[in-house]
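From the methods appendix. Each design record in this collection lists the tokenized structure first, followed by the designed amino acid sequence. Records were kept in a plain field format so they could be parsed without special tools. The example shown here is representative of the layout used throughout.

RECORD:
FOLD TOKENS (489 positions):
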């Protein structure tokens, strides 16, 4: 036992010494690196930069600038289109053609030119070079940070957790069409450099609920995501729904059959049809849930996979009653976020996030009292016992819920006043104040279904890394401000 204690003591002493020494070394180097990076000059509004000593660097998404080894600095040029709308990551020198940091083999630097949508050719060989950085398979946030740090320390370091896809294309008669990543050779369609079994003439993006284009697209018959054909036929009613606040999951809903896809994965056909339950407007609910014919489900993105969380079956069809209230033949329901917190040696932190479906009240008892600022901020409802504020205004810091119980009935009169009442306009800050003082409290109800995802716990090294990065950012910012002041004087 005594030996173990002595060993642990030695480990802690070493850890303390390293904790004192390493940050000083890293700070000194970061300061030097940041000051040097600030002197880099961008080349022709591209992703390429020239260092103070003339060396060529390529910027990689979320990773920093990487040395373009072997690039000839005198003949280096960026390949651009006349009316490009994004920073080009394609360049050439007298020896090679580059897609970011990668050499595209077989291309003649003298005759290579861009076609558009990410495609380029020299008349004999063609390539696709994606303008968008992607995460490497098996991406890990901590590893990504460490690789970026290594890139600052080691000039010749070339490993990054992000990359720009490049593909050699078996055609020299490519015609860019539709959008980034698309090209055709006659009736043959290419997407991101790969052949795609689709009709080039019928291409269109499937819309989101607010009319914007989604990542899902169709040729009028089949549906695709990231170049993969999905097990569903296209219908005009299809929409991408319920984008989560973290932009990690893309849900596609086909209302005729009740089919749901999450990042291209089709939900169980045995549980179809599904009715999606999600909030409108700004995505404040962590994720949607789905009512199937045999219960309630959600997509657990941490696995990933479809999880059944309740055997609840609505009385009749469940539908959106008003804004973020839902109803079946008997009851009114709502979604609500919650979090589980735990104390650790690193402090208090979120250990899990939850989304629940709750029964609010009887459908027959609920009545509308009035609009809040003409409906801009929401609506007040009431039943036989309570009053509720159904908010259409979300703020991640002050108004984090969609449904509130009105604890102070004086708030009902304030919320439902006509616009410009006595010359005063209701403002968002007035609602914040009601929440702060307890006049509005998050609604409570009978639990119908609850979904839960554990939050990945940061390591101690990650805490140290981000702490150092913050300190460096402050020091560098102060130094730049002082430098600017000296220049001004």
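DESIGN:
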């Amino acid at each position: 036992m005594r030996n173990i204690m002595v060993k642990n003591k030695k480990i802690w002493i070493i850890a303390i010494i390293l904790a004192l020494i390493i940050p000083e070394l890293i700070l000194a180097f970061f300061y030097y690196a940041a000051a040097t990076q600030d002197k880099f000059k961008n080349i022709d509004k591209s992703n390429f930069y020239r260092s103070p000593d003339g060396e060529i660097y390529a910027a990689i998404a979320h990773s920093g600038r990487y040395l373009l080894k072997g690039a000839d600095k005198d003949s280096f040029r960026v390949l651009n289109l006349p009316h490009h709308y994004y920073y080009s990551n394609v360049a050439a020198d007298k020896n090679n053609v580059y897609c970011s940091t990668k050499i595209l083999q077989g291309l003649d630097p003298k005759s290579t030119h861009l076609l558009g949508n990410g495609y380029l050719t020299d008349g004999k060989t063609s390539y696709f070079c994606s303008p968008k950085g992607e995460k490497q398979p098996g991406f890990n946030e901590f590893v990504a940070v460490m690789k970026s740090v290594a890139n600052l320390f080691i000039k010749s370091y070339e490993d990054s957790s992000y990359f720009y896809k490049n593909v050699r294309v078996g055609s020299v008669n490519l015609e860019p069409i539709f959008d980034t990543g698309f090209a055709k050779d006659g009736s043959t369609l290419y997407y991101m450099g790969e052949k795609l079994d689709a009709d080039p003439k019928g291409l269109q993006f499937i819309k989101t609920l607010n009319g914007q284009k989604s990542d899902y697209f169709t040729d009028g018959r089949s549906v695709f995501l990231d170049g993969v054909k999905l097990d569903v036929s296209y219908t005009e009613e299809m929409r991408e729904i319920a984008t989560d606040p973290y932009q990690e999951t893309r849900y596609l809903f086909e209302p005729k059959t009740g089919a749901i896809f999450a990042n291209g994965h089709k939900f169980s056909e045995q549980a179809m049809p599904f009715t999606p339950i999600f909030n409108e407007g700004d995505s404040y609910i962590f994720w949607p849930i789905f009512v199937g014919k045999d219960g309630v489900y959600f997509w657990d993105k941490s696995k990933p996979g479809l999880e059944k969380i309740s055997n609840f079956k609505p009385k009749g069809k469940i539908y959106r009653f008003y804004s973020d209230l839902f109803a079946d033949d008997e009851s009114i329901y709502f979604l609500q976020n919650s979090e589980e917190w735990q104390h650790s040696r690193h402090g208090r932190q979120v250990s899990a996030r939850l989304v629940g479906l709750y029964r609010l009240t009887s459908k027959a008892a609920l009545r509308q009292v009035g609009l809040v600022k003409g409906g801009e901020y929401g609506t007040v409802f009431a039943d036989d016992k309570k009053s509720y504020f159904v908010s259409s205004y979300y703020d991640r810091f002050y108004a984090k819920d969609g449904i509130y119980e009105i604890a102070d009935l004086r708030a009902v009169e304030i919320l439902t006043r006509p616009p410009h009442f006595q010359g005063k306009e209701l403002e968002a800050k007035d609602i914040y104040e009601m929440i702060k003082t307890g006049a509005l409290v998050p609604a409570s109800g009978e639990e119908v279904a609850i979904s839960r995802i554990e939050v990945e716990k940061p390591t101690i090294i990650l805490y140290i890394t981000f702490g150092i990065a913050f300190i460096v950012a402050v020091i560098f910012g102060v130094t730049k401000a002082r430098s600017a002041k000296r220049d001004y004087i």
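APPENDIX NOTE: The chain has five domains: 1-38, 42-178, 208-313, 324-451, 458-488.
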